[in-house]
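Is this the right way to post structure tokens for a design question? Let me know if I should format differently. Anyway, here goes:
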């Protein structure tokens, strides 16, 4: 921490005090004077202010005041105020405190000579106050999105949401949200430190890194792979950590004190060396395994082994690489998600590219498939039916750009969120829904996408940019979760654009994004345009909507960021400029919704303006207009 910065923040401390307290060589300090100082007495505690006083034994013409912090040992390098001295008593009023927050405070005295003298610490907690008090005292997250300097393993305690890819999030009984992820970090700093790394948070903003949950490649992966190879008359292969990938776990509370995590391990070795008919072999299978724990805080999970693997209806016809529309596998055993239905059924949903997404019912006790699996190599579709019911395909081919399924249940519908396209820039998220966990699933246009396949709408996230900010790309493969009180959230990685800060590797920045989800009147999820910053949700007054906004038509455009354009709402309830210019607008405070011409519904929320400098609380909206999602931000 920059010591001089804090000296400037405590500018009331005279230059002599700065020289004394900020000097790096404590041996240069004059000898301390004989000053005793009582512990501070806090009075008139309010939601954002207190009055405080202390008594000291000698006044030698120096300065006295109070320093305070949410940490246990504040000094003048933390927040500080100069006090008013009357006789041997120093007092002050401290403002701009946060409601319902515990602070530690010390009195301090600086004489003309000698070091700063501190009192014993005292703790106090501010009053709860109103939600408007909390909003006025709001402090946005301070961490830097461009985290290159702390990307290394030795800085992992500072990562917060740095180095997040393909996250899964669950709420545990201890009140923490636990997040786990694919093996991916900037510069591969995680290598050699286990797999499926975890972190946890109480507020979805500040995250504590926990470490890897799977120490090493389980032996069963190689054993199972070679078992299937032997059945096909193929020689054994050496499956080791250097030729596998660890991808996309999903973690869930079972509601009985037990927690389950499914994970994918992909063997990247050709099924058979050489060529056949000029074609090279497809690679070996992906495997989904499972771990359990009774205590996610321990970060110790017990591996339960094999669950399911990639399956093919083409028997030994694996020489198809290079012709992706003739992909060898029908279902690719990666990107698992897990759901327990209201009726108590357990389902594993998985799949990536290839022929789409499959759902298989799970034995609640074992966490393994409820029905016995057939051989994963076919020879036909009927023989691999046990590997899952087909629930979604983007275009019906064997190589279509959808993956990363996430299924949740809310108010009578199962919602299937799907990641589209390549991960570096184009990544975007769609959602469809069904009355049944295994389909059929329908888009907002009413199309049966289980039976016929097709483009899913609405769009949930898309590469975007507000104003002159660099914006974000690669925003998908999401976790969707709630706090148990119908407050829902969307978590994913977000990547910076290539050369955002002058380097191609900037696109390898993978910052964890958490966003609030709101719901349309007819039950479709809207992911808010700004990341979640724990802004107090004080009711929005209509007067706050008047003024300038930035609006984005979140319309699908492969590989391109959707850019914002200015829009203004007038006090006369007319849209003065930009999107919907000339239209009327109205506000429904009960629904907390902005309406354009009475029929375009835009759901409002208070969120953090991450592009502002400094960051601040603002108001955002999201809505749906046919195939276009609307995002907006008050500026």
């Amino acid at each position: 921490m920059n010591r001089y910065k804090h000296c400037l923040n405590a500018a009331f401390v005279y230059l002599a005090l700065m020289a004394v307290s900020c000097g790096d060589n404590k041996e240069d300090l004059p000898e301390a004077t004989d000053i005793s100082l009582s512990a501070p007495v806090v009075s008139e505690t309010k939601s954002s202010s207190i009055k405080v006083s202390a008594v000291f034994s000698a006044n030698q013409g120096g300065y006295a005041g109070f320093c305070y912090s949410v940490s246990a040992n504040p000094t003048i390098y933390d927040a500080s105020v100069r006090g008013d001295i009357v006789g041997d008593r120093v007092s002050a009023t401290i403002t701009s405190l946060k409601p319902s927050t515990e602070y530690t405070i010390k009195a301090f005295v600086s004489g003309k000579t000698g070091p700063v003298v501190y009192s014993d610490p005292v703790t106090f907690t501010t009053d709860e106050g109103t939600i408007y008090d909390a909003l006025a005292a709001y402090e946005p997250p301070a961490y830097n999105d461009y985290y290159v300097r702390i990307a290394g393993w030795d800085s992992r305690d500072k990562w917060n949401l740095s180095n997040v890819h393909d996250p899964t999030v669950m709420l545990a009984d201890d009140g923490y949200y636990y997040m786990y992820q694919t093996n991916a970090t900037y510069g591969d700093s995680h290598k050699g430190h286990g797999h499926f790394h975890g972190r946890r948070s109480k507020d979805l903003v500040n995250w504590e890194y926990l470490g890897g949950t799977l120490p090493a490649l389980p032996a069963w992966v190689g054993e199972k792979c070679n078992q299937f190879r032997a059945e096909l008359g193929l020689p054994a292969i050496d499956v080791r950590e250097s030729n596998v990938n660890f991808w996309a776990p999903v973690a869930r509370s079972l509601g009985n004190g037990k927690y389950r995590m499914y994970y994918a391990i992909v063997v990247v070795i050709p099924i058979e060396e050489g060529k056949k008919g000029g074609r090279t072999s497809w690679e070996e299978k992906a495997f989904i395994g499972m771990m359990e724990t009774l205590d996610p805080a321990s970060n110790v999970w017990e591996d339960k082994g094999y669950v399911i693997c990639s399956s093919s209806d083409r028997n030994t016809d694996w020489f198809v690489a290079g012709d992706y529309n003739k992909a060898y596998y029908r279902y690719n055993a990666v990107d698992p998600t897990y759901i327990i239905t209201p009726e108590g059924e357990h389902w594993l949903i998985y799949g990536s590219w290839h022929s789409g997404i499959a759902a298989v019912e799970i034995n609640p006790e074992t966490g393994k498939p409820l029905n016995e699996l057939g051989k994963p190599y076919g020879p036909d579709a009927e023989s691999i039916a046990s590997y899952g019911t087909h629930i979604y395909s983007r275009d019906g081919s064997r190589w279509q750009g959808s993956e990363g399924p996430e299924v949740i249940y809310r108010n009578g519908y199962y919602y299937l969120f799907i990641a589209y396209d390549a991960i570096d820039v184009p990544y975007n998220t769609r959602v469809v829904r069904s009355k049944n966990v295994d389909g059929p699933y329908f888009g907002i246009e009413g199309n049966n996408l289980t039976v016929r396949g097709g483009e899913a709408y609405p769009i949930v996230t898309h590469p975007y940019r507000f104003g002159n900010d660099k914006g974000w790309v690669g925003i998908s493969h999401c976790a969707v979760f709630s706090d148990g009180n119908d407050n829902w959230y969307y978590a994913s990685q977000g990547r910076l654009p290539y050369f955002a800060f002058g380097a191609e590797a900037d696109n390898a920045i993978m910052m964890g994004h958490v966003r609030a989800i709101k719901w349309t009147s007819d039950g479709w999820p809207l992911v808010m345009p700004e990341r979640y910053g724990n802004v107090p949700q004080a009711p929005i007054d209509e007067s706050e909507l008047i003024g300038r906004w930035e609006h984005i038509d979140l319309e699908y455009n492969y590989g391109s960021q959707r850019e914002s354009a200015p829009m203004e709402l007038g006090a006369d309830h007319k849209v003065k400029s930009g999107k919907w210019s000339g239209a009327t607008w109205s506000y429904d405070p009960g629904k907390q919704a902005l309406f354009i011409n009475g029929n375009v519904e835009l759901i409002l929320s208070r969120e953090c303006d991450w592009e502002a400098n400094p960051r601040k609380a603002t108001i955002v909206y999201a809505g749906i207009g046919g195939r276009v999602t609307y995002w907006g931000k008050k500026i």
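Format looks fine. Someone answered above. Worth noting: DSSP finds four helices and 41 strands in the chain. Residues 219-231 form the longest helix (13 residues).
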